[in-house]
Amino acid sequence: MTGANQPIPPADILVVGNSSDDPFAIDVAFAMGQTEDVADLISMKTFANSEFCPRFISDEQDFTRIGSGLAGKTVVIVSTSSRVVSRQTLAMRTLLIARAAKENGASRVILVEPDLYYSAQDRGPRKELGDTLFERDVRDLKKFDGQPFTAKLYAELLKLAGVDCVLTVHNHSHAVQTRFREVFAGQFHNLMPYDIYIDYLRNSNLVKYGPDGEGLALCAPDQGARAFVAEMHRQLALPKARFIQLDKERSGERQVEITLHEDSESTFEEIRGHDIVLMDDMVRTGSTVVNTCQFLKRIQPGRIVFVVTHFYASEEGREKMANSALDEILTLNTLPTILNRDEQGRLRRKMVVLKIESWLARRLREIVGLPVADSSTLYQIDMSSKNPRFIRKIWANDQLPALHGKR
User: Fold this and answer.
1) C-alpha 311 chain-centroid distance
2) How far is CA 66 from CA 60, 63, 189, 340, in A?
3) Largest pairwise CA distance in the chain
4) CA 190, CA 294: separation in Å to the nearest integer?
5) To 10 degrees, what angle do helices 150-161 and 87-103 make?
6) Counting runs of H as helices and runs of E as strands, what totals does the chain give?
7) What value does the mean pLDDT take over residues 290-319?
8) Cα–Cα distance list, 300 to 268, 294, 297, 304, 350 (Å)
9) How big is the CA angle at 211 (ends 209 and 215), to the nearest 5 degrees?
10) Residue 380 has what DSSP assignment?
């Protein structure tokens, strides 16, 4: 029975993952109101020759709907990467699940892939292979010489397999966004997590600032992050919060030179003593973010917090970001392995993960035309007890304002 604060079960919508035990997919399904377990809806068979063959489970005694058991239904495939199964394998599984859905009567297939695969392979060796916001010179073309425009291929394969709509989170590539919008005729949704970050900045003790934003500065580490951070600054609606933009110039694979952008809205002197929130879409080696934080430390700020949507960081990156120049890291679980304490390593002392399954389910409900309960949470918090901000206290009715989203 559905309670007043529980989501209405989706009508004719099946939520599955591309592995039967993916906790992210299971949580999205639950947040959507689905009562059936993912493993009861689809069987992930693998033949002796290692070939994958998904099968949507049907009543063995029903011989009247063979090949049409999903007629009129919308199938949602939730795909997240892991350390156990490669992204290539997961991508192929998604293609086969989408084709199985369509060939068994599904009217619509939606892919929810928070971290859209192959987005780093966002252009090819010729100028027509990838729309960019900058003029591609011969050095940029040479970087892709001999390799495919894989993001384009991935979009076309998804469409060919039967995917009708794609949802992702904070995709950074203009070329990828352009291609996916073209292939899916506008049914591509790049969900930006502004409301999640704003809610946490306003309702936690991550940073300190006055009623109008006094003492707070948002920082874009480069031109690529400017639009995102500028919009964050606008939506945060704190008139006295500062906004700075930096420039970075690579002098090597892991060496960058940091300067203040000539059009930055604030100067270094104006943010002295401020808590600084450095924001970006992803982190890999950690070199740039650590160099940036070390550079910002020279202007004697308060805390420096790194907010990043996709935490790809390698062992090298985690080791670098343990640097004392970076006070705390706030990220999302678009790559769910970051929830593992061993994966966090020493960073568990200064890492907070916002779990976005409820937020994704809200957006998915809007897209498929289902009602959204105003009382549902935006996110859940995962914070190690090693983090100094961890609150060791039991609250009545699980009400912990600093650790839960309002909506």
Assistant:
1) 9
2) 10, 6, 33, 42
3) 75
4) 32
5) 30
6) 11, 15
7) 94
8) 10, 10, 5, 10, 20
9) 25
10) E
Question: For the domain bounded by 13-191, which CATH number is listed?
Answer: 3.40.50.2020
pLDDT above 60 (res 300): yes
Specify which residues 111 forms β-bridges with: 77, 166
Cβ 184 vs Cβ 164: under 8 Å: yes
Give 279's DSSP letter. Answer: E
Tokens 């940091």 appear where? 258
- For residue 124 the two structure tokens come to 């090819």
Closest CA to 379 of 349, 348, 400: 400
At 21, the amino acid letter reads: D
Q: Which CATH architecture has domain 194-403?
A: 3-Layer(aba) Sandwich (3.40)
* Tokens read off for 175: 């070329």
139-156 confidence digits (pLDDT tens): 999 999 999 999 999 999
- Tell me, yes or no, if the two domains 13-191 and 194-403 fold the same way: yes
pLDDT band (50, 70, 90) for residue 402: very low
Span 32-58, average pLDDT: 93
- Average pLDDT for 177-206: 96
